[in-house]
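The protein record filed here:
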Amino acid sequence: MAGRAAAAVGLGVAGVAAGLVARSLVKKERESDGDGAHPEGWKAVTVLGDASDFARDGYPEPLQRLAGSLEIRIDPAPGVEGFEVHARVRKGVDVDGDPNAALRAALRDAKQVFETGEILRATPRPHGKRPRTLLGAAVDTAEDDAKGEGVL
């Protein structure tokens, strides 16, 4: 019985090691997490739905607020249903605060409004306050930073 347990542990360790090696090879090959800055300032988001419905009555409200300051183009999404919305801040246009952050938030929120009808929020929590714990603090920090940098 002890031999079987040792074999199972050895097999598990070998599997984890193989997974870590495969992950490092894939990461080296990609050389990017897909969030590098576009040289011309374009940001894009893939949206599930019909492109003709996206701008029918004007863009969804989060994007509509900045639409006058943006160049926007809509292209079919490669290999999937839906379409891509590409946008960048026009040269010489002032946007309050960080223009990249404003554009990212507008694209992300417009996608959510178009696909679900609302901007999805994790807070306030319907179950009310909870005691602050170590792991809970990590989740709270991730929720607070979710609208910041990262892959759209």
Residues 27 and 33 are 8 Å apart (CA to CA). The longest strand covers residues 70-76. DSSP finds five helices and three strands in the chain.
